[in-house]
Known about the structure:
The structure holds 2 protein chains of 2 kinds.
Chain A: E1 7-12, H1 14-30, E2 48-52, E3 58-62, E4 64-70, H2 89-97, E5 102-106, H3 114-124, E6 162-169, H4 180-186, H5 190-206, E7 212-218, H6 223-237, E8 242-248, H7 262-277, E9 280-281, H8 310-324, H9 337-344, E10 353-357, H10 368-374, E11 381-382, E12 392-400, H11 426-437, E13 442-448, E14 452-453, E15 485-486, E16 488-495, H12 498-510, H13 514-520, H14 527-541
Parallel strand pairs in A: 1-4, 1-7, 4-6, 7-8, 8-9, 12-13
Antiparallel strand pairs in A: 2-3, 10-11, 10-16, 12-16, 14-15
Helix pairs in contact in A: 1-8, 4-6, 6-7, 7-12, 7-14, 12-14
Chain B: H1 3-7, H2 9-35, E1 44-48, E2 54-57, H3 60-66, H4 72-88, H5 92-111, H6 116-137, E3 139-140, H7 145-157, H8 162-179, E4 190-196, E5 202-206, E6 209-211, E7 223-232, H9 240-244, H10 252-280, E8 288-293, H11 299-307, E9 311-313, H12 318-328, E10 345-355, E11 358-364, E12 372-378, H13 381-404, E13 406-409, H14 413-428, H15 433-444, H16 446-454, H17 459-471, E14 478-479, E15 486-487, H18 489-492, E16 495-497, H19 498-516, H20 518-524, H21 527-530
Parallel strand pairs in B: 4-12, 7-8, 8-9
Antiparallel strand pairs in B: 1-2, 3-13, 5-12, 6-11, 7-10, 10-11, 13-16, 14-15
Bound molecules: adenosine-5'-triphosphate (ATP) and magnesium ion.
Amino acid sequence: MNSTREIITLQFGHYSNFIGTHFWNLQEASFTYEENNKPLEICHDVLYREGVNLKGEVTYTPRMLCVDLKNGFYQLPDVHRGLYDLNCSNLDEEILNSSTKIQTIQEEKIPSNEFFSDLVKQELLIDDDSEKINIAEKVYNLDNDVKIWSDFLKARFHPRTITSIDEYKHNDSSNVFNNFAQGLGLWDSYIMKETWTDNLRLYAEECDYLQGFHISMDSLNGFGGLACKALEYLKDEYSNKTIIAMPVLSDNYILEDENSELQAVNTSLLFSSLFEHSTMFVPLTTSSGGWIKSQSHLNLDYLSYKNNLDYHSSAILASAIDTFTLGYRSRFGNDSMQTMCTRLTPLGRKAVSASIQLPLGFESKSNLLDYLQNSTLPLWKPISPQCTTEMSVAQTIVLRGITENMLYSNNLIRDSKNPSHHCTSPSDLLKLFLSFCDHVRMTEVHSFDSSLETIAPFPNIFSQSINQHGFVESSSRSSTSVVAKCAAISGLHNSNSMRDMFIALKNDSSKVKGSKLSHMFNYDIDVMDYKETLENLLVLSDNYLINDCL
Amino acid sequence: MSAISLLNPKAEFARAAQALAVNISAARGIQDVMKTNLGPKGTMKMLVSGAGEIKITKDGNVLLHEMQIQHPTASLIARASTAMDDATGDGTTSTVLIIGELLKQAENLISEGVHPRVLTEGMIKARDKALELLEKIKVEGKPDRQRLYDVATTSLRTKVDRKLADQMADICVDAVLNVQREDGIDLHMVELMEMQHKTSTATTLVRGLVLDHGSRHPDMPRKVENAFILTCNVSMEYEKSEVNSGFFYKTAEEREKLAIAERDFIEQRVKKVIELKRKVCPPGSGKSFVVINQKGIDPYSLDMLAKEGIIGLRRAKRRNMERLSLACGGSAVNSVDDLTEDVLGYAGSVYEYVLGENKYTFVEDCKNPLSVTILIKAPNKYTLAQIKDAIHDGLRAIKNSIDDGAVVPGAGAFEIYAWQELQKYKDEIKGKSRLGIQAYAEALLIIPKTISTNSGFDAQDMIVKLQEECRENVGPVGVNVDSGEVLQPVDAGIFDNYCVKKQILNSCTIIASNLLLVDEIMRAGMSSLKG
Ligand SMILES: Nc1ncnc2c1ncn2[C@@H]1O[C@H](COP(=O)(O)OP(=O)(O)OP(=O)(O)O)[C@@H](O)[C@H]1O
Ligand SMILES: [Mg+2]
């Protein structure tokens, strides 16, 4: 009997969907269709569902629901749709032949970018070798083409996946969707309360052993409020399921106008609700300020990405999510979301920070032992706002793309007394290493052979000294070749510095006083309730004060 | 007042006049797009998005939602008019047309120096009078089946072609009459179920329920007869998670024990269901048993049920719990302790239907189904959407007429009648506000005019004919869209909803006044428009 423990993924908001798009593209890039001797390490059935379309063809699509505003995405017939569409040709005839008069109103056509054009060509020419385009090896620069997430969405979705909110439009300055209360209100719309919940139920009904939900939401705009309502609904209808929430923050959503504190306020309201309704939550951002504009952002040695492009920053965050969730998406081992959350969130410390190192900075032909010995600590950089990964009481670290035969140099002279010379897997060695140099009491380490598959439409953000396989090379990579895969490290840390994050958040949002708050939220959020929210944050931050009992 | 307007008192006036001109042109613009929709002969619109997605509609409300409306005034009109549709389900196109026409009438008068305030006063008087007239023309009394059918066909024929409309009207009337209860009609008890089907387009009424899921066990029967139905909200899913909390403080052994206890706990629940089944379906009785659960049922529990020949469905829609007990009798339970026979419902037949990856379960032949399902089959999404929208309108039109206890003769009959009576009324009023009354009367004529134009007949000719007939006092007269002659809507069975007409009169007056009194529009806000 199939015993996959399924997860349903829920995405709320434009930046969440940017990250989601990269995430699903990464998954799809890692599918291997060839019969391989070795079973795949990653069990895609955890996040994907198998289906059949009306033509009887088998489909494989994410078990996912995403929500965005009208005009926030599109679905091109050749690229995104078609999985469940029937042939349309005869239907057009049907319309033309019908007796009623028809007037056509055609909107401006969406231009296809270079990547999509190649994708369509590739599918048409699938058997014709002569003109074959190899998308996996071609260098694309989509930086200027990508405006919204569907501009680089390669993965195909089930028809029930996308929910479009008609009440607000993407980038509509006359009716902006920028506050938490609007999101709360939106839950009562037919499309959410009926259609979305029904779509969710249909996914859940298919699952034999549903373990829980991944839920990501934009933290700075109205989507936080909508996601909160969705979480309350999950509590009601799907009690006992594990919920890992990922509020995501992009610097580009912060406008420096008179309402610049609004983003902090939205975030406070969201975080305090996540404490109540999630099993664990991981705020994610590449900008150090999170909810306020800051000059500094994540800086990785071998990446030259632009933080002002959501297309870039979301790729990094998606890589992190893909990596730190591997523990319970593996085909081997019997970790679950629940066991990981239990391990990582003792004493009501539900908020944890995340980290990444991408690429590893691992020299080609080097070995893990040398790499670790020469590395500067910590091995990773934080991707959660206004906090570090230091002083953690528990952590989960996932290393990927380093295989067993890369543990030691061929000419290593093994010292029988040195335990670091006798590890059998990358995870053992890393675990041992961490036990020497950082004093986190509970460290869980996983390692996977599978690298991140960074082929297009993953952005071209690797420095020239990274070779095609993601390792550091002394000679620089030719401009016509891409980094197709890369090794990475990503972790989740229950760090005492989360306290700093909560205090900063509280301080930034308490600058907003009564009348301004009422104005911001058009009186939809009670000032007293809000005060309580802020007090809550402070109380919760105290959970991170005491670590001596652990 | 700002500094500039103090220096130049005319500046303020100029600004207002400019804003007014902007409002008027926006209202006319949106009116132009909507005009061709009105009535049974209006044109269908096919909206093709930038990515090639198709939406086909004739519904004003749908159009306003789908169209990219850039102009702030136009989008204000759109939002206000669709808010009205939310309340009654109809009349959006008429509202937009009358607003456009009121502004056009007003434009001429204002350019001749009449103050907008005076005009709006007149319009409000006219509105009050029109509401009185509506009371006079409405056909009162509890509508019989034929009348309901007429209302439904009138509504549906304005949305889909005639043949389809007439067939759907029958289904809608039957559906509403089935779920009607003494305390009123809850349209939620009519479920619309869509099926994308390769070859067929058909709409049928199922006197019972169609669930959009089926059993998840290969050995469960696909079809049973004489079925007892147990509806429940009880988890039959073994949750490791409940055990795992407190993980650190327990030894592996203790955890294992807890896990077994938990598994056992779920097993007991399933056993209780099986016990009841054995009691009510003794061997050879020809009876069978179906469990419909709002919560999950895991494969282990499904297996236990399958061994007993029980059909088990999991994750049923919350609202279907209520609908099931209305359709089949019995009542939904939240616990399987102390299960008794009287919580069970009954259905003559329960069977599964598979279409692609989707399974459907039909629960049919119920004794007195107070909840029914309308099943819509079509080969593509946009046809499904179009039919679904139309059925929604049809159902609401029927419910409205029952709730109102009255209907209004359609085909422009009310508008002609109101025009004629407002002419008389105007003469009783002194002062300039009578100009507003005149404008209002003329604006109403846009409805019969547009219905005629859309049917290919000359609007002016038609209006003259109608006015002549109306003067004869032969009862309500309207446009015959096939011949271009005058007809008796009551005889022809063309009826509109009373509450919709009332809403149209109210909202177009409020919105138009707001647009005319531009100075006040800021303060008015949207809230007063919903009124
Ligand atoms: N068979 C008919 N002959 C003449 N007029 C008709 C007929 N059926 C309906 N009408 C008239 O058409 C008008 C309704 O048209 P329609 O339903 O297209 O617009 P609406 O109700 O204003 O807006 P919506 O798009 O929201 O339905 C009513 O005035 C009605 O009396
Ligand atoms: Mg109508």
